[in-house]
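Journal club prep, notes for RB
We'll compare a predicted complex against what the paper describes. Inputs for the alpha-D-galactopyranose case:
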Amino acid sequence: MGIYTDEQERFFSLRTKNTEYQMQADEYGVLKHLWYGRPVKTNMSYLLEYTDVGFSGNPYDAEDNRRYSLDTMPLEYACGGTGDFRIPAISVLHTDGSNSLDLRYKCHQVKKGKYAIPGLPAVYANEDKAQTLEITLCDCASGVEVILRYGILEELDIITRNVAICNNGNAEVILKKAASLCLDLPYGDWEWVHFHGRHTMERMVQRNPLNYGIQESASTRGTSSHQQNPSFILCSTDCTEKRGECIGACFVYSGSFQTQIECDQLSQVRAVMGIHPSLFEWHLSAGETFETPEVILTYSSNGFSKMSHNFHKVIREHICRGKYQLAQRPVLINNWEATYFDFDTDKILDIAKEAAKLGVDMLVLDDGWFGKRDSDCSGLGDWFVNEEKLSGGLENLVEQIKKLGMKFGIWFEPEMVSEDSMLYRSHPEWAIQIPGRKPTRGRYQLVLDLSRSDVQEYLYNCISNILKSADISYIKWDMNRSICDWYSNNLSAENQGELPHRYMLGLYALLERLTTDYPNVLFEGCSGGGGRFDAGMLYYCPQIWCSDDTDAYERTKIQYGTSFIYPISAVGSHISVTPNHQTGRITPIESRAVTAMAGSFGYELDLGMLSSEEKQAVTEQIKRFKQFEALIHGGTYYRLSNPMNENTALWEYVSESMDEVLVHGMIFRTVPNMKRQRIRLSGLCPDCKYQVTGKDEVYTGMALMQGGILLPESCGDYYPIEIHLKKQEG
Ligand code: GLA
């Protein structure tokens, strides 16, 4: 296993526990992609015999070989302008106005450990857990070199990719596109799965057959977005949760992105993923290098479940960092849906007192505590406590909350500025807007130019001062609009195209500095809920508020889609009131509980308004969550039903040792004379016996997986399900 190279043949094989990825530089130095799938231990180039395909031209050095065309064969990193007419991974503009690249193999290197990418989030691993392969390709005419990096985490079946583009020529080159992933699949009948949505309805699953031509999912919003997630799956037409082949890709980046999938004239598939080229340009002077963000790849021959397990493990254990990465998360109460902007110290303390009685660990003070902020029209940027609302300041409030035995957390939206703020009045040039044009407002606010070091410094100091002013254990880092009107006062006209990526580099630098300097603070990401739910943000924030939709029924769908790629511990999820504020729907408090427990758990309502039975339920829920937290966050997660088209949302957590199992979910509708439903479990030890907690029922793992378990008789709508089983000893 690991990296296998055949120097003579210029053949490379990346071997993980259950997968193999092959490439070979051919006689012309063209790096071909040969294979990504199950381990085959054979050079798969024998499958690549092409005919003379009309209008697919031939490189000059192929001489009279008209069967050799860059337009037909699978390439490892496709470049434009030299006869491959499919989607390029890289585009450049040379000083003479031409834009061709002809990348040929130059050299390679195998290294211990996993490469890091300066300034960008990426998978990390101990030296003994990972290896790196670097293959350098060169465009002789211009001196542009491309280093393709592969990180291999054998045990997890994970391959990561990133690309360094070095200008080793004498003249400047302008990068117009620099994708992180190019994956050519010459054979197979693939379907495409991606995750679309909107605010309060993120990551809906869409699965489509491939059309000839190009299909795309992308964001041009300056964030990874609610509308499309920077991840995709290519799966065999017969792929299900347990069976079939699939390749998943997850972009470790939080800005605009583009995924394009092309089905070419020979029914071959190419997938290209990276920073969105229409919002990207980068000037590379002689001697300079550009690093692309990373893509995480995994292949499963056992359906979507195994693919998700690989992603969950790599993201939880090799992307997320810090004190809370694997630790228990505090059960929190957030005041947003309880008060919105209308609160003062007493109101917050009332909420905290009730929460403390019921067993909640932390109070999070949401939007409205700073500057002039009684609505969303003003105040952003003025990160100073509003003492009219919080008499006695933050220190007083935090001390009182600590006396209740609780921790304290606070909301920030650092990247934003309101026009009605002291910050904007003193620094209008810090906002992203184009001179001579009226800016587009989003939630009345403008975006700060995070590419500027003075803006980063200001934000670091504001946040740092608040953190120093009181004992703060948590920050909710929000971001509530899409970015447009791209223009920086700090960049020359010719460099304006660099702003969207420079913004991301600035944001990551700020987050890196704060998380390093305040290692005990838990950071939770947020962007109007899950508008920036991606592996890039998870490098700094081990949990992200999954959606502003807290309706339990809708949440089962949102969390179902999210679970294909992202681990359960990453999902911020709260119980709120009924009728629900987003949908008006009424669901039982227990259904809200099991849904919110599929994540980093909390509450978002005025607990004082609950009946005594409901309060009792809250106390028990918190105890249960704490009892199950290690299983929920650290166990293996299975989707047992598809809430998009079935009458249930059911999911399962199995402990690593397979001796504990928890099934959660709900039956959406009860109808008269309903047949009892059974659900087949996954991931159990077939010969072991499992007992249902609180009952005498004992079944073998095989019976539970093949025959299933009966769900209780439901009554009413959104009927909650919780089934806990333990392996019997001996
Ligand atoms: C966003 C967040 C909410 C809340 C509000 C506050 O919409 O997703 O949870 O923090 O902002 O303005």
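Talking point for the session: The longest helix spans residues 612-634.
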